[in-house]
Protein 1
Amino acid sequence: MFGLKPLPVILATVAFFFVGFLWYGLLFTEMWMAAEGLTEEDAGSPVWMIGGLIITFMQVIGIGLVLKWKNVSGVNDAVMTMLTLWLLIALPFTAYAFVYLPAHSLPLLMIDASHLLVGWVVSAIILTIMK
């Protein structure tokens, strides 16, 4: 996998996916659904979770490549790298919905962006420790 060890990539993917479960399935479920304008009946098929897992896997590979190319050697450097990438890539990307959707939902922006921040940091820590 692009010169990355499979086990750390798999474990980081599972951990990141679990962060998503915590964010959207436990901690911020009601706030997120309200911000999205969803009801329980609107919940999609669990089959869509496979797509989410694939997207998470792809992000973890990207995180692993950035850490590898940057030659990150310690957890602090990995966390700072993810904070920088989150600030310059993930936050602006998630802000598109805030800017362009009619609702301009700040709670939705905060939930989605913080999910990526925590997921990226957790993944980077796992990949760095297990490299």
Protein 2
Amino acid sequence: MKKLILLIGCLTLTVACQSAVSTPATESTPTATLRPTPIPATTAPTATPPPSPLPLYFTEEFDTDSTFWEFLQTGGADTPLTAYENGMLRIDISAPHTWYLGIHNAHTYSNILITAKSSATPTGSIGLVCRYDESKGWFEFNTASDGTYSALFGQWLAPGIAQYTPIATDPTKHLEAGNLNYEIGLSCQDNSLLLYVNGTLIRRLDIERFELSEGNVGLTTASFNETPMTAFFEWIKVDEP
């Protein structure tokens, strides 16, 4: 009887021991976490900035060609030739009685001072322009190879045909016959034109009657009877009056 009880006890203990051993948990297959695929950031195309606009006041030294200059002719049988040469603007006129304008069209001005270092062969004139308006007219200051100066009001009658109204024409001690190597200046100030030679004011003229208030600046040169005529502009300065 004791053996039977002992056997039952051992069987019970065996079952209990087996029950005490935990069944290993079935390993779950790792689940991959899906993440959104990064999309490379799209770099916006960098716009090329436009060229800096030319300042309102500047000095043109004629080192390189410029798109701001427009050249216009009145009179003469042949078209003058322009070139950038040795840091200067060169204008060659081969026909007599030819008037040639160079208009700088970057800005328009009301009151302005233009000065230029210029020279030319003694067979014509060389000068400056202010308040150029294609439809209304413009003002010119010219120094001539005979030692005189002139202030003019110009107007286009038709393409290539201009009419000039004299405002003043006189000799001055500041100009020499046969010499066109000067620093010249022209200022439009309200209702006045101021004319300069080598930094000296030689004349102030009333221009109220022409009713021209603003426009572009520029340069001018002309041939007389004798040709060829060659003009040089070393620099032009556009500044406050």
Protein 3
Amino acid sequence: MTDRYETLAARLDERFGEQITRVASNCGELTYEVGKDDLIEVATALRNEAEFGFEMLIDVCGVDYLSYGSDEWNTSSATGTGFSRGVEREPVILDEADEFDPKRFAVVYHLLSLQHNIRMRLRVYTGTENPPIVASVVDIWNGANWFEREVFDLFGILFRGHPDLRRILTDYGFIGHPFRKDFPLIGTVEVSYDAEKGRVAYQPVSIESRTLVPRVIRDDNRYSADLKDASDG
């Protein structure tokens, strides 16, 4: 990481103290985690205070860390379970009685300071609440409006104080949130033209259930180095 970013990191640590926590980076990027209760205060300071000046919000994105770091298949052998979540898992519909792992869902804010030509990221976890919810930053960066709607649509994360929080990519009658890790890849419904009703209508998905096995690395005589050399002459 360059000296400019290390200087910025020192200023951030001095200004916010325990309100933010630096996240280790392998690619020289500056990322901090902030508690959901401190999000608005920290974001406002990052935009307004001259030493930071992050006047532009580049992007807001959601993350689902369910099964993060675990593999579904082994590259050395084919199994009957590889990528099976596409047909075997049921979607999770919001249920007020359930709680999530406190670090399952996160919202990530990508910030740019034009006056200082520096970038950084903020990450806030939604906690155990179901539905997951964090404060909206629309009043700080107006460009967050549609970004937050997209996160709500695809991940089911609510933004408290958003002026118009409704779906933006999926259909009006869509059920569930398709970027959640436990949402089936084939979905739950499909649309087709119903001649009797004279319109497009929903119906249960009719894709044939099957286990999707990825390409595997095979170790047999077809890939023997001796045979390969012989065939090459």
